[in-house]
Design brief:
Two copies of one chain form a homodimer. By secondary structure, chain A is an alpha/beta fold. Chain A has 17 helices and 25 strands. Helices cover 31% and strands 19% of the residues of chain A.
Chain lengths: 502, 502
């Protein structure tokens, strides 16, 4: 048995995942660790999926409601969705199997701000949580949990659940211990300020305290996280990143940002990678990240002495960087902090840090409303994630996206977004490969030209055409022609492209 | 000269409003006190409007950009709009003249979260502020300002402006002194937690400290606030209020609320009035309000010993209650606190108090997105106000509205809202006279039946018809038929009613 289970009482609970599956029953509400493919349980999802398939094969019902931190992996969200083992899922997903099941109507998905999700569990909005299944690096002598490569909503789940199953994963480095900072706002009516003023402030413990009497099983695993290979930025991504970096420079010139005052929040993807590469050779120094996930580029910035600290709730590394982190975690313990997502994404801390938010999107409209989640209004892509937490409370919020997708069939700028995740009141700056639309201080009508200027040229005439129609509205605060507001999307649904015929 | 101007240096600056108008020039950015018809300058807007008219009469340009706390009054927003004296206005308005000018395109309006508006001025997002015009109860010996019946964004404006004009209004009771609690979060990079844990915590000064050398004029006035007469709740409002109170009771039954744990945020209007009347005879005790405006009903609850404290940024009283407050302000100094709106509406404090938010709306859709601002997508009604600040950070957020308006021509529940101010991720509970739609924990498709159940019966078949069409979508996360999503609104624009013919 692994010497990572230092508590005698919990050593007695070690069993196989198959045995532990007895504790997860039809109709249960189950909270799992896991955030962007890091720190999710590796064994239990598979055996729960098998249990569901067995039940269904015998004509019995079996499904659970699954709560996590964010996305997990094929061997978690993927196998559970494929087995039709889920009735309901929140707050984020990005799995192809699961996306398919959601969009065909086979399971329900609720898209919740990541900063709200654990809090809502604590507040009892979902009723009682039956089981928490949490991956650990090790179990301490006192029976507490040292989390692995993410924290997510694990603390809330472990507090709320009637039963606890711990997966101790020996693939995860024991050196991660000391990197976590576990602190939750006390429950109502005793909430107090989160005592974090700077991204690097540590306020809690390096482990999650649990009630060991709730632990029904400890399962040993040795399996890697889902770490997606790093993709080198393409030309469009580099152009967008260039515009974003120019925007940062222009904020310095305007006296609204200091070269040593950049607090970064960044979504994941090609453009953020290119931004971080660009920062390596920029005038920005002492960069801090207060964000959701630690990416390869942040590790590089730390190594180069350009970034002093990165605070997040999870790693989201390439396999190469994950291995490096596993080997050298102790070296990064001063500069990387993993917090509960209720803290990494907490509105109050985000606002306090004065961070500049930068997130991807599916589409934005001519007035600056943004859609992060749905294709053509109905089809779920991934989900909202923390984009709302950061956008709403950032010093400056920005959205970055190529101006078109699917080989030009989809425009990122449309007359009316088919789903609103971030309103015109929240989004400030949009960036595509054609430049920056800075909407700060602008009434709706003054935003239109800026948004069209960053649209792909092939879509500008169609957008202008819509603006001309809309200008005939009797009401000029936010001129629209609702008869044609969704023409781009309807064309896309009917013909496969947002482009007009002829 | 009034003995309310206790500072000798500033006594030398006393002049008429007409004389002070020399300091407000074409193209200026002007910040004024004022929030929901309380505490706005009474004299300067009129003379600025006259100056604009004179200039226009002489063929000259004259317009300013106007920033306030929220709405003001006919003698402020009204006269300025009527004189075409405004190029740009933020963050809220509710004036008929101004609404008309905005919707006809004669001026620009930007609708900004009230908690963000002062902060954005401080952050320099609008460039330099030229003039701050602020109403005071009195000027202290040290040259500081005791604000009057609202605080709004006055502190940010006074800090940011190059020139200051103070209106000392002897209509406002000197007894208001001591009721204000003036504290701002220090500027970046020195932001710290707001040290408020409970609605009643006092953390600042009772006056606004200013740089007296920036004061260019002091103007004496004696004029009442715009205080709208109290309207007794009608039958529909009482039904809605009854459902809302039942909902609070059900939260107690579910263990999610205590009878002495209700922290109230409330919009203004008939339904809130009815809710507060209902609370008088309820089991709820020691109610606290952490809200934007102090309303008649809160004063009644305080008088009855049902409410321990009400924290806001402004009064919004009937003339009768305003007179009472002016006469007995000292009696309410322990139970009423007026704060800067950046604090009354601060995300971090809202979340910390665990308040239950309750705001009006124009329409909501079958998936729980809410529109607070626009008729048929284009026509501005009032603005967002603090509804987003509270909805996003509340313990429970609710929207209350009659199920129909304009004698049945408008349904409050529609297939797709024509403007999104609060997304499906933010709004939790909707209440009409037909009941409560509690959307917590529900995926989009599970929300539809709940939302239709609170629609007016005459609109339910049309909504069902849309749902049937939408159900044919290939994608089932949020089924829509974008060809017909705005049919309700298009009918309304074309025929004057959302009802179908025949």
């Amino acid at each position: 048995m692994s010497d990572r289970i230092a508590n005698a009482q919990l050593r007695d609970k070690v069993m196989s995942a198959e045995e532990a599956a007895q504790f997860v029953n039809h109709g249960d509400k189950v909270g799992m660790s896991g955030f962007t493919g890091a720190g999710y349980p590796k064994a239990m999802p598979g055996v729960i999926a098998a249990k569901a398939k067995d039940a269904h094969g015998n004509g019995q019902d079996y499904s659970i409601d699954l709560f996590t931190g964010a996305s997990t992996a094929p061997e978690c969200d993927g196998v559970l969705a494929e087995a039709d083992a889920l009735r309901y899922r929140m707050p984020y997903q990005s799995d192809p199997q699961m996306r398919g099941k959601i969009n065909e109507g086979a399971m329900k998905f609720q898209d919740i701000h990541l900063s709200h999700s654990g809090m809502m569990v604590e507040q009892g909005f979902f009723g009682e949580l039956d089981v928490a299944i949490v991956e650990a690096v090790r179990i301490t002598e006192d029976g507490n949990i040292v989390p692995s490569s993410s924290v997510g909503n694990s603390v809330e789940f472990l507090n709320a659940a009637k039963k606890i199953i711990i997966e101790v994963n020996s693939w995860q480095s024991e050196e991660l211990e000391g990197m976590h900072d576990i602190w939750l706002v006390p429950s109502l009516p005793n909430r107090i300020p989160v005592p974090i003023s700077k991204a690097g402030d540590r306020i809690g413990t390096t482990y999650i305290e649990i009630d060991p009497s709730k632990v029904v099983a400890v399962v040993e695993t040795d399996a890697p996280d889902r770490n997606a290979p790093f993709k080198a930025p393409d030309e469009v991504s580099e152009q967008i990143a260039g515009h974003f970096l120019d925007f940062l420079e222009s904020e310095v010139q305007a006296g609204r940002l200091a070269y040593d005052g950049y607090v970064m929040q960044s979504g994941v993807g090609n453009v953020p990678n290119a931004v971080m590469a660009g920062l390596m050779n920029s005038k920005f120094e002492n960069i801090q990240a207060y964000t959701e996930v630690i990416q390869d580029g942040m590790v590089d910035l730390i190594d180069a002495g350009k970034m002093t600290v990165a605070s997040a709730t999870s790693f989201s590394l390439s396999p190469e960087y994950a291995e490096k982190m596993n080997n050298e975690a102790s070296r990064y313990r001063d500069s990387i902090i993993l917090r509960p997502q209720s803290i990494s994404n907490h509105p109050e801390v985000i606002r306090r840090t004065g961070l500049i938010a930068s997130n991807g999107m599916i589409e934005a409209d001519i007035y600056g409303n943004a859609n992060s989640t749905h294709i053509n209004g109905s089809r779920l892509m991934n989900a909202l994630g923390g984009s709302g937490d950061f956008t709403r409370n950032a010093y400056i919020s920005s959205f970055i996206s190529p101006s078109e997708a699917k080989g030009g069939a989809i425009s990122a700028i449309v007359p009316f977004v088919s789903h609103v995740d971030h309103t015109e009141h929240d989004a400030m700056v949009f960036v595509t490969e054609y430049g920056v639309a800075d909407l700060r201080g602008l009434a709706p009508r003054d935003r239109v030209a800026k948004m069209i200027s960053i649209a792909h040229p092939s879509y500008r005439p169609l957008l202008e055409e819509y603006v001309e129609r809309a200008a005939k509205s009797k009401f000029q605060q936010t001129p629209h022609d609702l008869r044609h507001a969704f023409d781009f999307h309807i064309r896309s649904l009917e013909t496969g492209t947002m482009k007009a015929e002829g």
